[in-house]
Structures are given as structure tokens and as C-alpha cells.
Amino acid sequence: MSQNLELTTTINLGHRRRKLHASLHHAVIMSSEEGLQSTWSYDYTKYHPMDEIYRWMEEVERGNPGLVSSAVYGQTYEGRNITLLKLGLKNSEGREKKVIWVDCGIHAREWIAPAFCQWFVKEIVNSYKTNKKLEQMLQNLDIYVTPVINVDGYIFTWTNDSTRLWRKSRSLPPQGSDCYGVDLNRNFNANWGTVGVSFDSCANTYCGKSPASEPEAKAVMEFVGGMAKQILCFLTIHSAGQLILLPYGHPEISAPNYNELVSVGKAAAAEMKKVHGMNYTVGTSPQILYPNSGSSRDWARLIGIPFSYTFELRDKGEFSHLLPEEQIQPACEEAYAGALSIIAHVHDKTFTDGTLPNAAVTTVMGFNTVSGVAMTMWCTFMTVLLTAGISV
């Protein structure tokens, strides 16, 4: 994600590429128990092309019917399915379940992100029966995991070495341009178009024609927005830089539960460091990276989801978006520890004292505003000023 970490030269990745399907081992699933084992026959220490990821999702669901289900909640610009896996157990009391959202692969070149989403599912599938705490959380929570949101872009990065560092979606260029795609993480309706974006369609941070102009961003907004009151936590996984980012990307706006977001993020970073000694920095994007707007993280907090974070996984610049496969396992192990730390916190808070914040009260240039309506008005005002060429 970080522009500071971008590689601007064509890099020969021939030695890292493999024949498609080489590491995909098909398991004949005869029962739920055997289906559990099928997650172990898939090589989680390799990067996988999209067709393998789709088949992996089918096998995990088929092998674990009591835990895993799937849903298609949108289509990409090129007409491919955006599919999630839902992980959760029934509870005997019939309590209403809350939701955790985890997504990966919104930026095409960040291959470690989809690798993590697959690792995350594998860890839960393989450990919930022997981990009482995890089992309890799955009885109270449904965890929605999207391994790849930007399916078109991700597939494009597998074309050849020259496309490997593609970031955006693959929507057609606007009139008068020959540059494809939109930065999907600048296309959400959260202070859209105000800071940290470009209106040049050839730029990597091109935010699109309007909020949710891209079908991928719109799909997330409609699906997540439709159950926002149930969602406790929104985690979106990126690379690189080893950061845990919290709302908001605009330097003049802060979340009402900012202090708690920081403390929970720092607790997650501490758990991550315990795994392999890697340091992760916690803060808002303007504090530790750069200002931006239109991100899914900010949008999630803005609609009232109390805990929203962006994980920027390994590394800090040596490989950036070209993280070697030998680092997949350690990167995913530490990220899993961090994610589980946050999920456990929001679970325990909800099902122990029920004191989660819900309104997205924010400070905007000295004024207090509450949630969507006022913020949308402010975003529209700012966009009009920018469109008119007025400096703000």
C-alpha cells in the first residue's frame, strides 16, 4: 500500500514463479473429519493464483459443513464473483450472533494479504475443536473472510513479470484516457476525494469518478452496510510497512474511541512481536504513513463499526510487495496473533459488559458530528471545493 515502499522498476520474478496448480493437492472429501484434513494438503507457504484460491474455498466449505459456508456478494468489473467464507458455530441458547469482517487483496500486488486470509481460515478450521476460547468465540461470532476483493487486478498480476506490481482494479479508462483501473481503497464513501488521492486516472491512487463508482467497493459497502449494526470489528489486510492503522485517514478527523483503538492496536502489536520479534507501529495513517481518504477502514468506522483497522504486513522495504514465499509462514503467524488479539478483545467486551461504542462521533475541523449524515454533508462540501479548484 505505502507509496514509499513502491518498486518502480520491472523485476524479474521468474525464479519465484511456479506452474499454476503445482502446489494444489486435491483431497477427496468423504466426511467432515476428512474435510478438515484437506486444509493441511494445501500449501499455505506458497502464493496461489485465483483459480486455486476459488477451488480451495470450495474444498474448505465442503469439508467443514458445521463451521464454514460461503456467499457471493458481488461481481467485479470483469464479471467475476467476489466470494467470502463465513466461519461460525451454532450456539445452544439461540443468541443473536455478532460479526467480524476480514478482507484481503483489495490491492492486487499485495500477494501476502490473500495468503494471510487463507492462513487465517486454516488456523481456525484446524484449532477450534481443541481451543475452548476459540470455540466459544465462534458460538458468539460469525467471521466473514474475503480472500480476494480485487479479483480482476489479482489475476492480472499473475499475467507476467511486467504486470506483477499492478495495484488497482481493471475497470475501463475514463473518456480521454488509456489508463485502466481505480484504487479501490480510495473509492469508499469516507471523505472521498479530499486528501491522499489523485483524480488522474493514470495514478496509482486514482479514486474513481465518484464514491462507490467501482463494483468491488460498492459490493462491500452494500453487503457490510446492510449488517453494520451486527459488526463489531472490520479488519482489512494490506502490505507493506508493518503497521496497524486506525481511523481516520484525514488529519482533521478523529474517532470517538481513538484511545481505545490505539490501546487495542498496541496490544495486538505486542502479541505479533512475541511470535517472531517483528515490530508493528500503531497509529492513524496521517501519524505514521500519509493522509488518505476513501479507505474501507475509514468507511467502516464512519458507519458505526466500533473497531476498524488496516494491517500492513511485512516488510519494511527490502522486498515490499514482492515478499518471498519463505516469509509467508512467519508473516501470517504474527498477523494471526494480532488479529486474534483484536477479535478476542471485542468479543469479550461485547459478551461481558456490552459497552461497545456505536455512533461514529468525530471531530471535524473543531466541530462535533455524528455518524453518517453530517459526515456525508461534510464530504460533499469538501468535494465541491476540490472540484472547483479551491484550496482547503
From TrEMBL:
One of its GO terms (molecular function) is metallocarboxypeptidase activity. It holds the Pfam family Peptidase_M14. It comes from the Eukaryota. PROSITE patterns: CARBOXYPEPT_ZN_1, PEPTIDASE_M14. Its cofactor is Zn(2+). SUPFAM superfamilies: Zn-dependent exopeptidases (SSF53187). Residues 46-346 form the Peptidase M14 domain. Keywords: Carboxypeptidase, Hydrolase, Metal-binding, Metalloprotease, Protease, Zinc. SMART domains: Zn_pept (SM00631). The active site is at E312. Belongs to the peptidase M14 family. This is Carboxypeptidase O-like. It comes from Seriola lalandi dorsalis.
